[in-house]
Amino acid sequence: MAFVITRRRLLGASAAGLALAALPGRAFAAPTSGFTHGVASGDPGQTSVVLWTRYVAPNATRLRVEIADDEKFDRIRMTGEAEASPAADCCASVVAEGLPPGRWFWFRFTAPDGQVSDAGRTRTLPDGDVESFRIAVFSCANGTSGWFNAYAHAAARDDIDLAVHAGDYIYESPLTRSDAQPGIAAQRGLAPPHEVVALADYRQRYASYRLDPDLAALHRRLPMIAVWDDHETANNSWRDGASAHDPATEGNWNIRKAVGIRAWREWLPTRGDWYGSHCIGNLATLFRLETRLLGRSQQLDDQLDTIFASGGDIAQKLNAFGAGPLADPKRAMMDAEQERWLADGLKSSVNAGQRWQVLLQQVIVGATRFPKPNTAWFKGTAPAELMAELERRSLLLQTGMPYSLDKWDGYPAARQRLYDSAHTAGANLVTLTGDSHNAWAFDLADKAGAIGVEFAGQSVSSYGFERRFNGNAAQLVADFMATNPNLKWMDASQRGYFTLDIRKDRIDADYVFVPAVGGRSAVSTGHKTLSVEHGARQLAI
To answer: Is beta strand 237-238 parallel, antiparallel or unpaired with respect to 224-226?
Structure first.
């Protein structure tokens, strides 16, 4: 149960999402009672924000919530109550309403026995005329691949207004996956050891992730808008399944999807809706999309595998595949309702005079082909199994097939509908993307002309191309850019996050590189800034 705080009263609000209260499962994390995981805030509006904590007790517990204008809580603006219940894994979320726009606040929770949570800092989105606003964008935090130093670096800054998480906030995979750093899962207390499938598993994985001090610091310092990607349920998920889900051994997909969504909504400071928009005064509209579990059609990788296994004229079959199944207009990333909502929202944003239309979403939009393999990508001889994959990719390149069918490239008709909506609205489109682990910047365009730009961020800790291609990273980047003229910049070997400095006439995206291996350290090793001018709809290079 969530509660809405107003100046006059407390209003009960049922938790958004699926009615799964009867499902069993409790997370186990240290400490085992009281306030166990600090505080967080998220999904801000211009007069409201979601506040979150976790309070572990045997029974449902009423918590007092205080929101103050100052860090010392000398000027309490409003108070309210929330309930932390074992039915929601002892997570408590409240929506504070009636706040003034564009202001920073401090908040905390107090238990009946007088125990007080950490104090958190949050803010509402600005209204009216806004000159600038800075967002920090994160994605892909595999706890077995490295430390969350990117979170620590951003949390230490004083010039960020909002955190955005583009997905893969947790990883559902076993802690013994082949690319895991030895001993790191034990050092940070990640659990459970096996792949997470049941509600108790997901809850335990979130509980162990949220004990990370750098992630806790980020949540304590900044409100967050988050979308899920695939690892919050299972790798390469879609509406009715996932490539990493085996019904024979892992049960019904709809149940797994439901419990994955439930745990995400319990553990993140979110209102619980599938998608939504956030206005930053007259500066921008942020559109938070859902492109995984609501309307996405199945990826076509199995059909590709069948083609390559069939023998004969593979190139001819690939050409038929590209003109047929891949181009099918019924293939969708979003369901029809969300597509209409976004098209209408883009028009409304432009008509209201908002300067930028920004998509917060999961996978790369820009068309991307994998380049011809180059021996410079490797130190020594490439592994035999990788060479077989690269031979397959060479044939895909020759026939114009995309690099990945899990990205928007695997849904070209859906992407064209998105582009058509942007053209019709006259949008200045900017897409913020996660998923790929590497850093990219694309111009987005079609036959009708320029549409906007895409900033796709490097991961917080998950390995990028540097693990598979351990040779000359600069040559790999050069080959990708030569193969894809719409790709204007790329980094294939560094971790971190990026910021988006939004102003009326210009957006600067600053890619901040913060290593994830070698221990905890919030020291950046460099950055790269790219810009787009309002009305240009392409990167200034």
So the answer is: unpaired
Instruction: Domain count for the chain, please give it.
Output: 2
Asked if residue 136 and residue 119 are part of one domain, the reply reads no
All residues at 6 or more sequence positions from 488 whose CB lies less than 8 Å from its CB, including other chains:
441, 442, 443, 481, 530, 539, 541
Q: What distance in Å separates the CA atoms of residue 335 and residue 220, rounded to the nearest whole number?
A: 35
Q: Which of 21, 98, 114 is nearest to 63 (CA)?
A: 114
Question: Domain of 235?
Answer: 128-541
pLDDT tens, position by position, 130-141: 999 999 999 999
Mean pLDDT score across all residues of the chain: 94
Six token digits for residue 170: 């947790």
- DSSP secondary structure, 78-125, as one string: EEEEEEE-GGGTTEEEEEE-SPPTT-EEEEEEE-TTS-BPPPEEEEPP
Nearest to 268 by CA among 207, 334, 340, 329: 207
pLDDT of residue 11: 29
CB atoms within 10 A of CB 88: 22
pLDDT at 386: 85
**pLDDT of res. 429:** 98
Helix (H, G, I), strand (E, B) or coil at 189: coil
Residue ending a domain, choose from 124, 155, 180: 124
Are residues 319 and 391 in contact, defined by beta-carbon separation less than 8 angstroms? no
Q: For residues 137 and 113, state if they share a domain.
A: no
Distance of CA 339 to the CA centre of its chain: 19
Q: Which residues contact 67 (CB under 8 A, 6 or more apart)?
A: 5, 51, 76, 77, 78, 79, 96, 99, 105, 106, 107
- Cross-strand partners of 442: 454, 487
Helix (H) or strand (E) holding 41: strand 34-42
For residue 229, name the pLDDT band (cuts at 50, 70, 90).
Answer: very high
**Same-domain status, 453 and 529:** yes
Which residues lie below 8 Å from residue 462, measured CB to CB, with a gap of 6+? 140, 141, 142, 145, 146, 168, 171, 437, 495
**pLDDT tens, position by position, 260-318:** 999 999 999 999 999 999 999 999 999 999 999 999 999 999 999 999 999 999 999 99
Beta bridge partners of 66: 79, 108
Structure tokens, 529: 């800034």
Phi and psi dihedrals of 309, rounded to 5? Answer: -85, -10
**Mean pLDDT, residues 2-6:** 51
Same-domain status, 541 and 448? yes
Domain stops at, among 100, 124, 148 = 124
Residues 77, 80, 86, CA angle at the centre, nearest 5°? 140
Same domain flag for 120 and 229: no
* Tokens (6 digits) for 261: 């969504």
Same structural domain for residues 302 and 440?
Answer: yes
**CATH number, domain with residue 7:** 2.60.40.380
CATH, residue 289: 3.60.21.70
Task: Indicate whether 14 and 87 sit together in one domain.
Answer: yes
Query: For residues 513 and 527, is the Cβ–Cβ distance under 8 A?
Result: yes
Which residues, in sequence order, are bridge partners of residue 95?
4, 50
Q: Measuring CA to CA, which residue among 85, 17, 77, 76 is closest to residue 56?
A: 85
